[in-house]
Amino acid sequence: MTIIPFPARSPRRYGDLVVTQAMSLEDEQDDAVRALAARLVSGDESALEEIYDRWSALVHTYALRALHDRHDAEDVTQQVFVAAWRSRHTLTPTPTALPAWLLGIARHKVSDARAARARDADRVAAVVSLPGVHDGSDPSVDDEAAERLVVRQAVDELPDPRRTIMLLAFWEERSHAEIAETVGLPLGTVKSHVRRGLIKLHQQLEGVRHESR
């Protein structure tokens, strides 16, 4: 029996090939992110658009989990990318720095949103604590009566459903959950209407106080 020798072949190493290709792909992605960050730093507006398309969902998810309010999360997301453009010179163009930098900005904007909520709570207390109208000639009583009238007029001039939500919240003292069930709107939407309504009332009261000085 004749044995025909075949040339020796090195065994195929598929695993090494896959790993090498994966590392090459990661390097290409890193280079693309680094180049994108460099374009942003240089003031390329199209780079900001690409960054928004790629990472806005990440920022929005973080803001939504932190604030539990879709409207506030959307506001924060927009603020993050506006701030990113304005402070682009602070970014170091590296692959890992870009998303981390965006989330750092997001943390500051979430903190600002929480501080705004605290201020809104103070406004609620200010509106609710306005005393009723009393007889007498005390100027401070007249000022308080004027403020109460301004608040009610400002609420009456609000478009629905914000007007109804504000009346239920402050005149009927309903909870946000009760209001949401009554008007048939999501709880986050109700909270957003209350917050924006309070901002409007605060502006009206500040105008009255300024005129009375």
User: What pattern of helices and strands is seen along the backbone?
Assistant: HHHHHHHH
Biggest sheet, open or closed, and with what strands and sense?
Answer: none
Distance between the termini: 118 Å
Query: How much of the sequence is in beta strands?
Result: under 5%
Binned, the helix content reads: over 70%
Summed over residues and divided by their number, the pLDDT gives a mean of 78
Query: What class would the helix/strand composition place it in?
Result: mainly alpha
Q: What Rg, in angstroms, do the CA atoms define?
A: 29 Å
Q: Count of DSSP E strands?
A: 0
SS field, number of helical segments: 8
- Overall 3D shape: elongated
Low-confidence stretches: 132-139
Note down, in words, how this protein is organized:
This protein is elongated. Helix content is 75%, strand content 0%. Mean pLDDT is 78; it is low at 132-139. The chain has 8 helices and no strands. The chain is mainly α and 213 residues long.
